[in-house]
UniProtKB/TrEMBL annotation:
EC number(s) from the headed UniProt entry: 3.1.1.-
Alphabetical UniProt keywords: Hydrolase, Signal
Superkingdom per UniProt: Eukaryota
Domain Carboxylesterase type B per the UniProt entry, residue ranges: 35-359
Gene3D superfamilies per UniProt: alpha/beta hydrolase
Position of the signal peptide: 1-20
Record-given protein name: Carboxylic ester hydrolase
């Protein structure tokens, strides 16, 4: 596909055809042979193409169905002939819960059922060179109940500006009952995961128009975003699209740990909106016709999932997109997954960010420790081990920094999600007057480590930092930011000792918290 990027008031082409005309950095246009998208300068050195639709709106008779392909030409503005992508699109319907990140974890745009859009962040100088750049696709977490690509602390502008040669894509996917209805009347389940696969296919087919290399896509995410990214190397072992995988505090085992019997949620919501019916097909038809706002408000704090977030649905085992834990173990041991390099890691106090809490009292530290160890630490060890067993390059980190800007309460420690603002460079948005002397250096180091993997998933971390690939029971764990120092060191994985006999998660007690 031929492609170019044109800067309004003069033009500059990715293909290397530069002009000497003056250009206005405010707007930029990405072109293919079929359509053109107008973006905008979102920050110094970064152009953003925002709110680009990647599938048909999942409304009307498309509600609760897999994402349908979209003819990009149909989204063009009739007067300009351009697809306008100069502002964030709406996020998907969700139920916000009390997050330790405060307002910075809330989307900056309105909610809508028409929410299947993505953002492309491109280094501003890209149009001056005929070089295809690596692409980092980052997927948000939120327990499959909340999140979006307009959340302030998820904005990758600083990361793109500092890396200078990496394109970042962020997307939306359907949440709660809209993305994971799990009705037995449906032929296809886990729509929110299918949304992500459809978006990944769109990126593969169109990223060249923005100067990206479709052969150098690294898929990553945090929490639920990491869970589903990990799921894709099992659901699409022969056609993963991605060349590397980057998981922050999430694996498919974590997703299974948080899932409940969610068909009961669909039934409860149907009853709330007046769609209760013993005939499940009639129930589904009624739910498809129901008012979207009514469905959103039928999700409440009564239906907290085990990670403290309201849920009207979560991934279920369909043996297509999601498998059982036993099946993942079998496939992991046999190497029946996409054999691509992986960087994965967790924080030292994951549990502090995923269970119910009160600002004054904090959380139950015993439960938090069990969650940290059994669900997060041990799943990182397990999956790092699967890669290592089959000699697939894998690196594993352990994030230990407790930086004031992102530590909203003193009891949090290095909590679940603490690494995200440092990766994106958005930690100052959470600071509220708190300042640390080493935070900026730590952020820059984390960005450099991740960028090294994204540029060269197979060899980058070894050649750029001398970091060894992970091997269980060896000194190969990358310790980050001990005592808040902006450094890393190779550790013996003593933290993994708990995984020899992990404490069972007391779900019944947890549910009563």
């Amino acid at each position: 596909m031929k492609f170019s990027v044109t800067f309004c008031a003069g033009s500059l082409f990715v293909a290397g055809i530069a002009t000497t005309e003056p250009w206005n950095p405010k707007y930029v246009v990405a072109k293919t042979s079929k359509w053109a998208i107008r973006g905008v300068e979102v920050s110094h050195g970064v152009h953003g193409f925002l709110g680009i639709p990647y599938a048909q709106p999942p409304i009307g008779n498309l509600r609760f169905l897999p994402p349908q392909p979209l003819d990009m030409a149909t989204t063009q503005d009739k007067s300009s002939g351009l697809i306008e992508a100069t502002k964030f699109g709406p996020v998907c319907y969700q139920f916000m819960y009390n997050s330790v990140a405060g307002n910075q974890s809330k989307p900056a745009t309105t909610e809508s059922e028409d929410c299947l859009n993505l953002n492309v962040f491109v280094p501003a100088h890209q149009g001056r060179h005929n070089i295809k750049l690596p692409v980092f696709v980052w997927s948000y977490g939120g327990g499959f109940a909340e999140g979006g690509n307009s959340v302030p602390i998820y904005n990758p502008g600083d990361f793109v500006a500092r890396s200078k040669d990496i394109i970042v894509v962020t997307w939306n996917y359907r949440l709660s009952v809209f993305g994971f209805p799990n009705s037995p009347a449906l032929k296809e389940q886990n729509l929110g995961i299918r949304d992500q696969r459809r978006a990944l296919e769109w990126i593969r087919d169109n990223i060249a128009a923005f100067g990206g290399d479709p052969r150098r896509i690294v898929l990553g995410g945090q929490s639920a975003g990491a869970d589903t990214a990990h799921a894709m190397i099992y659901s699409h072992p022969r056609d993963p699209i991605m060349a590397g995988l980057l998981l922050q505090s999430g694996t498919i085992q974590v997703a299974n740990a948080g899932s409940q019997q969610v068909d009961a949620e669909f039934v409860r919501i149907a009853k709330t909106v007046g769609c209760a019916n013993d005939d499940r097909h009639q129930e589904l038809k009624c739910m498809q016709d129901a008012d979207a706002i009514a469905l959103k408000h039928a999700i409440s704090n009564i239906t907290l999932n085990r990670f403290g977030s309201p849920t009207g649905g979560a991934p279920m085992v369909d043996n297509i997109t999601i498998f059982t834990l036993n099946e993942y173990a079998k496939r992991g041991q046999s190497g029946d997954f996409a054999r691509i390099p992986m960087l994965l890691g967790s924080t030292s106090d994951e549990g502090q960010g995923v269970i119910n809490w009160q600002p004054e009292k904090g959380i139950n530290q015993t439960f938090a420790r069990i969650i940290t160890e059994t669900i997060f630490t041990c799943s990182m060890l397990l999956n790092g081990g699967f890669h290592a067993t089959h000699n697939i390059p894998v690196w594993r980190y352990w994030f230990r920094g407790v930086f004031p800007e992102v530590t909203t309460y003193p009891w949090l420690g290095a909590y679940h999600g603490a690494d995200v603002p440092l990766l994106m460079g958005t930690y100052k948005q959470m600071a509220d007057g708190r300042r640390g002397s080493t935070t900026i250096q730590a952020s820059h180091l984390l960005q450099r480590i991740f960028a090294s993997f994204i540029r060269n998933p197979r060899h980058g971390l070894l050649s750029d930092f001398g970091l060894p690939t992970f091997r269980p029971n060896t000194s190969s764990l990358i310790g980050l930011f001990q005592d808040n120092t902006p450094t890393y060191k190779i550790m013996t994985p003593t933290v993994d000792g708990v995984c020899k006999n992990p404490t069972p998660v007391p779900y019944e007690e947890w549910d009563r918290l």
